Amino acid sequence: MKKKLLTAFLVTALGISMLSGCGGKNSDDNSTKSEQSTKEKDQEAADKVAKLIDDIYVQERTDKTDEQCEAAKKAWDALTDAQKELVEGENADPDYFGRDTGDASKDDPLNEDEIGENELLVVSFGTSFNDSRAEDIGGIEKALQAAYPEWSVRRAFTAQIIINHVQARDGEKIDNMDQALERAVKNGVKNLIVQPTHLMHGAEYDELTEAVENYKDKFESVKIAEPLLGEVGSDATVINADKEAVAKAITAEAVKVTEYESLDAAKEAGTAFVFMGHGTSHTAKISYSQMQTQMEQLGYENVFIGTVEGEPEETSCESVIEKIKAAGYKNDQLTSFFICDDDWEKEQEITLEDMGTSSDEDSYIMKETKLSDLLEDEKQKLLYVFDPLSERVFFIELSEIITGKDLDNAICSRKAGEAPKQTLDFDEMMANNGGNLDLDENFYGDQDFDMEDFDPEGFDMGSGSAADPYEQDNY
Fold first, then answer.
1. Residue 199 φ/ψ region, left for φ over 0, alpha for ψ in the -120 to 50 degree band, beta for the rest
2. Once rounded to an integer, what is the mean pLDDT over residues 406-428?
3. DSSP 120-163
4. Distance of CA 446 to CAs 16, 426, 463, 474, Å?
5. Of the candidates 353, 111, 312, which has an alpha carbon nearest to the alpha carbon of residue 200?
């Protein structure tokens, strides 16, 4: 009898065990499905917000713009922090609503009524960075109001994309040109002066003048002031008093902030200054060439004008670098750091100098940026482009963050091999090699070291490909 009882007990225990095992597997499967379902829902919610942001990232205002701005912000606020990180669209990203650009309440949009008969309308491209809008654009507006107290100063932006961004994120409404002119008409303004803060007679200035043209018969008098660089002129040799004043002012400021006693002192130290504009395909692009002519006529031999877009061609980064080299200056390399993803794809750029990027884009300059501003996690990858023309780079990985310790200056705790020459003179290399550009083993630096001395984790670049400029054999 005992034997039968024992057998029954074992069978029962085995059955319980089998049931328990089956229950665990179903639980794991359900958990996996639940996680997948959550991820899908998170992405769906993020994609909805991205679409709403893209819908207001446009240059034209419609009857639905106010409603769309409100809907985009409401949808963003409803997301969890994890969902916000997933927002990605044609123009949408987490920074659209998430980046802290300062206190919007410090900015005065200058869109109130009771203008009076005389209005001074200050027209800017605009910026969504709150501190910059309040201090820079607002600073100009306040200075004009102080200089002309008998006139009412009002604001208009020509970039509807920026107007929508500020309205959606901060609830601050800024007039575009049509809104500002319509406001002036409704307030009975008789005399209107339009003062742009634009650099030149470019596309934004053309849009400004076109808008004013449609309203000019609504006022007794209308005057449009010149942009910063004044009239364009017929060719690169035509300059004017406005360009001379700007050339002197920006050069003096550059000498001051770099702490040289004079421009000549900077020249003696082997330093060249490059002032970067955005560049444009508009016919007004000749203004950049005229500014270079102005610098030369002032005797500023170590001052150069460049553009990010390379429009006009002689202002491209490559052309400017060649000019600087020809003049014998060395402290001129437009080096950059790049924050990278896990696959070494470039993301955020940190430049040596201000490259004149759009006011609606994030801009980081080496001397103004701390590592802690951009690096948060260990194993973060970076690229340092030390030779921009040849696209030679250093691969960098953050190995460890040590809290509670500070360094006044960077230190090198260990080095191996010889660093490569920063820049290459290809003409000289061709001449020395009988017309053949033979790249020896030290082209990318001394490789006479033992890779086992280094932690290889995170530096497996794969087999590389011809389409990839960062092949393992080269770097």
1. alpha
2. 63
3. EEEEE---S-HHHIIIIIHHHHHHHHHH-TTSEEEEEES-HHHH
4. 67, 19, 21, 11
5. 312
CA distance 461 to 475: 9
* 452 or 372: which leads in pLDDT: 372
Query: Which pLDDT tens digit goes with each residue over 155-210?
Result: 999 999 999 999 999 999 999 999 999 999 999 999 999 999 999 998 889 999 99
What's the pTM? 0.64
Q: Is the peptide bond before 312 cis (omega within 30 degrees of 0)?
A: yes
CA dist., res. 137 & res. 135, Å (int): 6
DSSP 451: G
Tokens linked to 109: 């949009």
Q: Report the C-alpha gap between 107 and 162 in whole angstroms.
A: 15
Cα gap 226→23, rounded to integer Å:
79
C-alpha 163/C-alpha 425 separation (Å) is: 47
Please give the Cα distance from 10 to 279 (Å, whole number): 85
Q: CA 136 to CA 152: how far, in whole Å?
A: 19
The alpha carbon of residue 335 and the mean position of all alpha carbons in its chain are separated, in whole angstroms, by: 16
- CA angle (204, 310, 234) in 5-degree steps: 60
Task: Please report, as a single letter, which amino acid is at residue 168.
Answer: A
DSSP assignments along 6-52, one per residue: HHHHHHHHHHHHHHHHHHHHHHHHHHHHHHHHHHHHHHHHHHHHHHH
SS3 337: strand
**Residue 309: DSSP 8-state:** S
Cβ atoms within 10 Å, residue 101: 18
Lateral strand order in the sheet of 152-157 = 152-157, 118-124, 191-196, 221-224
Q: Which two tokens stand for residue 222?
A: 């209308």
Q: Summarize the chain as % helix, strand, coil (round to 5).
A: 40, 15, 45
Q: What are the phi and psi torsion angles at 75 (to 5°)? A: -65, -40
